From TrEMBL:
Belongs to the short-chain dehydrogenases/reductases (SDR) family. The keyword rRNA-binding does not apply. It holds the Pfam family adh_short. This is NADP-dependent 3-hydroxy acid dehydrogenase YdfG.
Amino acid sequence: MKSVIITGASGGIGKEIALHFANNGWNVIATMLCLEHGKELQGIKNISCYVLDVTSTESIQAAKKEIMEDFKTIDLVINNAGVGYRSFVELAEDEQINNIVDINWLGVVKVCRAFIPVFRAQKMGHFINISSIAGLVNLPLGSFYHSTKHAVESFSECMAYELIDFNISVSTMQFGNTPSNFQKNVVKSECSSFGSYNVLMEKINLILKNKTAKNTDLKPLIIRELLKVAENPAKNFKRYTIGFDANSLSMLRSKMGYRLFGRLIRQSVLK
């Protein structure tokens, strides 16, 4: 049986990924901030739960030590842990900026850094870093979330060049808004004294809420595609774009260029 480490596996799409891999014959190493959060996974065949805080090097090393004592080989690491922050730049708070950077980008960096030596010693391994269509296109109120996902894309591609000689592959997976706890937990900036800011926030919230509600088939598609990629990893770095929304936005951004694409977004959102 192959073994996969999944970060942020206590809820949302991370939990669904863990269950799907376990049901398809993988040993799942589900990591989370607190074991209490992952009670629904405990006791399920092929799933083992571990405490791991992606923002803490000490926590990652402690979890790694425990995991490697229990499993001889790790075939795959899925960096899934992530948070959202929807804010205007001038209203952004240091605590929220630091939090999203620490989890969405530096968390990926630190987990990869910890498990590269494991993969190198094994002479094989695969990282799948969960990105977002936000890592390819830029939309209003996404200054912080989009920045971290762009960073994950760049980091992953650069790292892939370093690791190819060790038979370690790297992939990213991008998709749009899918019904899960993620959107419910997105932190938003408070209402301001600027009317245009408040109107724009309301518009973006409504657009994303409606789009998320329509994407009922997206989560199962993402999970199935993840398993396919995990079982047949590409040797060279590869981006996987999943779902109609993500593919459409990616194509439009590529074909139109940033100026025309920006005009399209302004007309769609700011009209």
